[in-house]
Amino acid sequence: MPILRFLFREGSPVIFSIVIVLFALQNLMIIAVPENVVGFFAVMVICLIYLSTQMGLTAFSRVGQDGPLVDLFLSLIPIITLIILAVLNIVGNIALSQFQMLVLGTAAIVTMMDIIFNTLVLFKMNRLASDFVQMK
For the residues 12-24, what does the mean pLDDT come to? Predict the structure, then answer.
């Protein structure tokens, strides 16, 4: 049970980063994602699963603890992975197709939504919880 808790709490950004890297390096994957609408849909389903997992964890997080700061740093892992892939593409170490760049750009938008919205909600909930404690 602790392994499942880790995979859902702290592990989801790490797993999403691994999926991003495997998608960018498709020649290493066993199952290649087709470069058409079906492939884009499959990747977007993965992005939506990640975003909904993060939103669910935000909704059920404990208020008044150090969770938001840890969640912020863990949510930065996928965006750092995307920045590294973009730099490697610009330098020329990896070659990304137009489809891969489009999907990785959309994954960057999903990751930014996670960082901005979920972290702001957690920080706001913690601030309101501390204000509530001070009022008592």
Answer: 85
- The answer to whether 58 and 118 have CB atoms below 8 angstroms apart is yes
Measure Cα distances from 116 to 51, 79, 90 in Å: 12, 12, 26
Distance CA 10, CA 17 (A): 12
- 74 within 8 A of 10, measured Cβ to Cβ: yes
- Model's pTM, two decimal places? 0.76
Q: Which of 26, 43, 62, 61 is closest to 102 using CA atoms? A: 43
105, HSE (Cβ side, Cα atoms, 13 Å): 8
Q: Which residues contact 3 (CB under 8 A, 6 or more apart)?
A: none
CB 39 within 8 A of CB 99: yes
133 CB neighbour count, 10 Å cutoff: 9
- Among 49, 26, 45, 29, which residue's Cα sits nearest to residue 37? 45
Question: Taking the C-alpha atoms of 86, 93, 22 and 74 in order, what is their torsion angle to the nearest 10 degrees?
Answer: -40
Higher per-residue confidence, 26 vs 20: 20
